[in-house]
Amino acid sequence: MTTSSLRRQMKNIVNNYTDAEIKVREATSNDPWGPPSSLLMEIADLTFNVVAFTEVMGIIWKRLNDHGKNWRHVYKALTLLDYLIKSGSERVSQQCKENIYAIQTLRDFQYIDREGQDQGMGVREKSKQLVALLRDDERLKQERSQAHKTRERVTGTSSAMSYGSLPPPYPGRQTGQPSVEALYGEEHSR
């Protein structure tokens, strides 16, 4: 286990992050490698749950506001957003359109590392691509359709989740409070 992942785990515990928030933090970490596609798919599935959607997007917007040596947070958040816009709930693209200025401002992102490398170039390019995608409704529709077909092919299922279908169960933040079922029995919750 790397020092950075150990530190991230400690922060997850101390800050009481939910499962969804932990997954987004992992996908947008400062590690010099990208997130696995299985993690991207899990996060995309979480966007169909109202509670998890809010948690996922909250961490993404925080990551997009990072700067300096945390440029990977920003780049990976844009990469994750790109994936979620195409494969997640339609609410992702709706929220991104409503907050497009936050993505647009990243077209001016600057960070030169110690070796003189312009690490901000990837962020600038990714932000331009995302803004163009969000402004082109027809292309967005095509990209979502293509992502849906690709996912069906990869997972071997034809019943991939669509907007408006029932979300998967999501526990959200663990409060230590007993559930309604535990207090009153299963019949009461129905």
TrEMBL record:
SMART domains the record matches: ENTH
Coiled coil, from the record: none
Repeat keyword on record: yes
Cell compartments where the protein resides: Cytoplasm
Location, primary (coarse class): cytoplasm
Leader sequence segment: none
UniProt-listed CDD domains: ENTH_Epsin (cd16990)
Family annotation (Pfam families): ENTH
Keywords noted in UniProt: Cytoplasm, Phosphoprotein, Repeat
Domain ENTH: 12-144
Gene Ontology CC terms, in alphabetical order: cytoplasm
Family stated for the protein in its record: Belongs to the epsin family.
The protein's name: ENTH domain-containing protein
